[in-house]
TrEMBL record:
<keyword id="KW-0521">NADP</keyword>
<feature type="site" description="Lowers pKa of active site Tyr">
    <location>
        <position position="80"/>
    </location>
</feature>
<dbReference type="GO" id="GO:0016616">
    <property type="term" value="F:oxidoreductase activity, acting on the CH-OH group of donors, NAD or NADP as acceptor"/>
</dbReference>
<feature type="domain" description="NADP-dependent oxidoreductase">
    <location>
        <begin position="23"/>
        <end position="253"/>
    </location>
</feature>
<keyword id="KW-0560">Oxidoreductase</keyword>
<feature type="active site" description="Proton donor">
    <location>
        <position position="55"/>
    </location>
</feature>
<protein>
    <recommendedName>
        <fullName>NADP-dependent oxidoreductase domain-containing protein</fullName>
    </recommendedName>
</protein>
<comment type="similarity">
    <text>Belongs to the aldo/keto reductase family.</text>
</comment>
<dbReference type="InterPro" id="IPR018170">
    <property type="entry name" value="Aldo/ket_reductase_CS"/>
</dbReference>
<dbReference type="InterPro" id="IPR023210">
    <property type="entry name" value="NADP_OxRdtase_dom"/>
</dbReference>
<dbReference type="InterPro" id="IPR036812">
    <property type="entry name" value="NAD(P)_OxRdtase_dom_sf"/>
</dbReference>
<feature type="binding site">
    <location>
        <position position="113"/>
    </location>
    <ligand>
        <name>substrate</name>
    </ligand>
</feature>
<dbReference type="InterPro" id="IPR020471">
    <property type="entry name" value="AKR"/>
</dbReference>
<dbReference type="Pfam" id="PF00248">
    <property type="entry name" value="Aldo_ket_red"/>
</dbReference>
Amino acid sequence: MTLSKPLPRTITLHNGVELPAVGLGTFRAQGDDARTAVLAALRSGLRHIDTASIYKNEAPIRQALAESGVPREDVFVTSKVSPYEQGAGRARTAVEGIMERLGLQYLDLVLIHWPGVSRVAPDSPLNAQMRLETWRELEQLYGQGVVRAIGVSNYEESHVRQLLDKAEVKPMVNQFEVHPRRQRRELRRLCGREGIAVVAYTSLGSSELLSHPVVQQVAAEVGRTPAQVLLRWGLQEGCAVIPKSVRPERISEWREELLLGADWALGGSHMAALGALEDGHKYCWDPEGIV
Ligand SMILES: NC(=O)c1ccc[n+]([C@@H]2O[C@H](COP(=O)([O-])OP(=O)(O)OC[C@H]3O[C@@H](n4cnc5c(N)ncnc54)[C@H](OP(=O)(O)O)[C@@H]3O)[C@@H](O)[C@H]2O)c1
C-alpha cells in the first residue's frame, strides 16, 4: 500500500512546540553504550532523545550531544523529574540539576515521571498534593522559559483529570506504555480531547513483541522488520515513539525516512491484526493504584 504523503515528522504540542515523532529511548543505557546510542541516533537523523534523572546517563548523553555537532536548537531533549524529586522546593532544583548534568541551558520537555512520590504509600493523599506542588514548579519554569514544554508520564485517567482541574498550564504531553497488547484507547482519547500529545513507551514490548508471530507475519507481508512494524503501528495511531537500543545497527532501522515514509503503510487488515493483540499486558510498572 502506498500513501500519498509521509507521516508527519513532528507532533505539534498545544503551545506550538514541535515534538519529533521518532526519538531514542535511553532507559538502561549507561556509560559508553549510552554515548554510542545517542551518537548513532543523531547521525541517523533522529532528533529526539528521551532521558530521565533516574536513568543516570546524563554525562554520556552530554558527551554525545557535543560530539555529534548537531546544533542545540535542532535536538529535542526530554527529561523527567523522579519520584524522589517531587514536591515544593524540589522540582526546580531537580530540573536545574538535570540541565547542569546535560550541559544544556534549557530543556525541550520536562515530565513528572510518575504520579507517585517516593516513600509515600500509594493510597496516601500526599501523592496528589505533592505532584500538584511539582506541577506548580514546572509551570513556573515553563513561564520563565527554562523549559519549552511540560507534561506528565504514567498518568492514568484519574491523574490527568485531577491535574486538568487545577493546572494553570495544561500538560502538553503524557508519556505512557502503548503497544498492540496495551493500546490504552480510553486514556489516549482523553488525551486527544484535551490536546495532550501521547508519547508511547515500550513500543517493542521490551524486545519481546519483536518475536510475536503476528508481528513477524505482518513484517514479512509488508517487507519491513518487526521493530519497524511496531513503531509504524504506534505512529499511525497518532503517538510519538521512543524505542531504545544501544546498538547502532538497530537504531539505523528507525531512521525517520524508514518509519515515516510514504512508500509503505500498515493497511486496514494489518492494523486490525495488530489491534487484535490487545490483552492489556504490561511490560513495565503499573501506576493504577496510586491515588
Ligand atoms: N516514562 C516511563 O516511565 C518510561 C518507562 C519505560 C520506558 N520509557 C522510555 O521509553 C524507552 C523505550 O522503552 P523500553 O526501553 O522500556 O523498551 P523498548 O523500546 O520496547 O525495548 C527496548 C529493548 O529492546 C531491545 N531491542 C531493540 N531493538 C531490537 C532488535 N532489533 N532486536 C532485538 N532486540 C531489540 C533493546 O536491547 P538493546 O539495547 O540491546 O538493543 C532493549 O532491551 C525507554 O528507553 C525510555 O526512554 C519511559
